[in-house]
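hey so u asked for the seq, here:
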Amino acid sequence: MKKSPKGLFFNDRAPIFRILQASFRKFRMLVSQYMAFRWSPILAACGLFSWRFIRSYRKLKFSFRISRRINKWSYSTMKMMYIVLLLAIVAGCAQKNENQPVQLSEEQVIARGRQLVSLGACHDCHTPKIFTETGEMKLDESRLLSGHPNGSKLPIIDERVFQPGHWTYFNEHFTAAVGMWGMTMSKNLTPHETGLKGWTPEVFIATMRTGKHMGIEHGRPVMPPMPWTNLKDLPDEDLITIFKYLQSIKPVDNYVPEPMDPTRAMTFKY
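ran it, C-alpha cells below
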C-alpha cells in the first residue's frame, strides 16, 4: 500500500485536509459571486489563526506520534492561502465601493429629469402643440410644459360623454379632456406663479404618492387622465430629479382652470 505523505494537517487522508479543501472551494464560489467582501474578514481571521498555530506548533516537541513536524510544503501552502485571503479583502472592499451610488452634478440631475419627463410622456398633455400644413404635430417649445393654453377655444361637448359606455374626448392640443368625471385641463408645470412656483420637493412627492392635489390628505384628487399611479412607486430620488428639472425650465404665465364636474363643464366658457 502506498504510504501517505507526511504531515498531520495536509495528509490527503486526514479529515482536516478534506475540510480545508471544501472550505477553499466554498471560498472560490463566494468570490465568483462577488460576495467576498462579506466573508473575507472571517476567512482571513481563520487563516491568520491557523498560520500562527502552525508556527507555534513547529516549535513544540511532543513524545507522541502527533509530535511530527509539519513539512515545509504545508507551511508554504498555508502562507499562500493567507496571502490570497488578504487579497480577497482588498478586492471585496473595492467591489463594495463600486456599489456605492455616484453623486451627480446639478446639470446631470436636470438632464436626468428631462429624460424621465420625456419617458413619462408628460409633454403629451402638458405642452401645447403646433400643427404644420401637412398635419404634422410638434411641441411648442416656447410654451414647454405650460399646460392647457388659457383662452383657447374648446369644441362643443356632447352630453353623452359624461355617461357610461361613451368615448373620452381630447381637444386638438391634448391638453383638455372630458369624460365621466367631468372636464380637466392639464396643469402648468413651469416655475411660474400660475404653475408650480412655491411647491417644494416634499409637496411634489406627496402629490405623486397619494394622488391628492399638493399632497393634502383631504384635498381634491388628481383627476384623469393624469396617470399619477404610474409615478407613485418611483423612488424619491427620481421624483426629486423630475421636480428639479421642472423648476429649471422657463416660467410661462398661463393660468389653468381647476377640474370641473359635468354640470360645470357643460356651462364653461372662457
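The helical segments are 15-32, 36-58, 72-98, 106-119, 122-126, 201-210, 236-248, 262-267. The longest helix spans residues 72-98.
lmk if thats what u needed
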